[in-house]
Amino acid sequence: MSAAEQKPYITIERETRPVNVMMNDNIVATTKEALILKEGDYPPVYYIPKDHVAMEFFLPTDKRTTCPHKGEARYWTISGQGRALENAAWAYDDPHAAVSAIAGHVAFYPDKLRIEVG
Predict the structure, then answer these.
(1) What DSSP assignment string belongs to 8-69?
(2) How far apart are CA 103 and CA 26, in angstroms?
(3) Which stretch of DSSP H or E encloses residue 96?
(4) For residue 7, what pLDDT is reported?
(5) pLDDT of the chain along its 118 residues, tens only?
(6) What is the pTM of this model?
(7) DSSP element (H, E) containing 83
(8) How many other CB atoms are there within 10 angstroms of residue 78's CB atom?
(9) What residues contact residue 5 under an 8 Å CB cut-off, 6+ apart?
(10) CA–CA gap between residue 34 and residue 105 (Å, rounded)
(11) Which of 1, 43, 46, 104 is surrounded by the most beta carbons within 10 Å?
(12) All residues at 6 or more sequence positions from 12 whose CB lies less than 8 Å from its CB, including other chains
């Protein structure tokens, strides 16, 4: 099989430790039910169940991206305390079957928010 035909190696596992996502010192998401998605050489991404996210601080944006392995992602700007982090969170509302476990979950950019595990 050629490199073009190979799919990236994607795994999804449950994180057994608590995960908190912080904007400054404010928790915008907290769970003991996070998923860790690992894809090839990319850093792991934590996916938090949407009902464990403070969605009242999330403003939908027009940004959409498409991943050939996961599907179409939508984005949110997180706003609070006079600060806004543009397109800092995303979700795959209808992911491809191979990664269907991430449906109903939100992921965050670790360079925009602090993600604490454990």
Answers:
(1) P-EEEEE--S-EEEEETTEEEEEES--EEEEETTSPPEEEEEGGGB-GGGEEEEEEEEEETT
(2) 25
(3) none
(4) 54
(5) 444 455 568 999 999 999 999 998 899 999 999 999 999 889 999 999 999 999 999 999 999 999 999 999 999 999 988 889 999 999 999 999 999 999 999 999 999 999 999 9
(6) 0.90
(7) strand 83-91
(8) 26
(9) none
(10) 9
(11) 46
(12) 35, 36, 37, 38, 47, 99, 101, 102
> What are the structural domains of the chain?
10-117 (2.170.150.40)
Total residues found in the chain within this entry: 118
Inter-CA distances, 5 with 2, 8, 14, 71, 97, Å? 5, 10, 28, 18, 18
Which residue's structure tokens are 């939508």?
Answer: 74
Q: Token digits for 72? A: 């179409």
Q: CA triplet 11, 15, 21: central angle to 5 degrees?
A: 110
